[in-house]
Amino acid sequence: MRTKDVIITAVTTAFVVLFFIPVGFLLYDVISNGLKTILSYGLGFFTDLPPVPGQGLGGIGPAIEGSLYMVALAVAIAGPVSVLSGTFLTFYEKSKFAKLMRSSLELIVEFPTIVVGIVVFAVFVVGFSVAGQRFSLGLNGVSGAIALAIVMLPYSTIQVNESLRIAKRLYEESAYALGLTTWQVMKLVISISKRGVVTGLLIGFAKIIGETAPIIFVTSSTANLYLTSWNSPVTGIPVLIYNFAFSGYNNLNDVAWGASLVLITIVTVVFAVTRWLTK
Q1: Closest to 78 in 3D by CA, of 191, 204, 194, 214
Q2: How far is CA 98 from the centre of its chain?
């Protein structure tokens, strides 16, 4: 092997090692501290209320419930819109509106998600008046779901569009040659690309499950509230971590470590499923 090749290989290896050092340290820290908390408290960590500051460990049950509620509602809102928008971008990609829509989605991807949270807070939490009638959702899971749906929408739409474009390129001409209408071709392309569509929705899910910034303004900072109605105040795992990690109480810091491990595990599972679907 030439000296130049040896140097390039050594430098590349060094950069790979440098990349894995902080990642390994991060994972070790979260897993060791989080697992210690969960094992100390037991399975009740996933269902019980958080502890009183300074008085032992507790669970993150309300935060798990709140996160699942907000994310499920966000997927229900953004999912159909993403599929329909991705289909429109695929079949009418040369239209001016489709080009503008694609550019807007790419711009929203780069938006700081905290801006989304502020806008949702101003519109849906503070509320607005129409003909003297005040409309406001307040601090609850629906407001959080709207914020997460806005964050999810561009990621899922772009991914769905990319998967549909591949199938469209391969089968569109043959489908039209067989006499299929545009609507039938759309259904055929979506059916062929269903794995890609599901992958796009999972990518959006993985993006929003760990988001703190867009929901910190629109959900409750109290972590001991279970859902009692569709619009009752809730919190999420990321918000709980944010609040407890900066607390001056060691027991709340420990709960934050356990919640961090739960969150990383959820994201890792979703990522693994996404990778499996894309093979």
Answers
A1: 204
A2: 25
CB atoms within 10 A of CB 77: 18
Which pLDDT does position 36 carry in this prediction? Answer: 92
pLDDT in tens, 98-112: 889 988 898 888 888
Handedness of CA 126, 201, 211, 257 (dihedral sign): positive
pTM as predicted? 0.87
| DSSP secondary structure, the chain, as one string | --HHHHHHHHHHHHHHHHHHHHHHHHHHHHHHHHHHHHHHH-GGGGTSPPPPTTS-----HHHHHHHHHHHHHHHHHHHHHHHHHHHHHHHSTTSHHHHHHHHHHHHHHTS-HHHHHHHHIIIIIS-EEETTEEE---SSHHHHHHHHHHHHHHHHHHHHHHHHHHHHHHHHHHHHHTT--HHHHHHHHHHHTHHHHHHHHHHHHHHHHT--TTTTTTS-S-S-----STTS----HHHHHHHHHT-S-HHHHHHHHHHHHHHHHHHHHHHHHHHHHH-
How long, in residues, is the chain?
Answer: 279
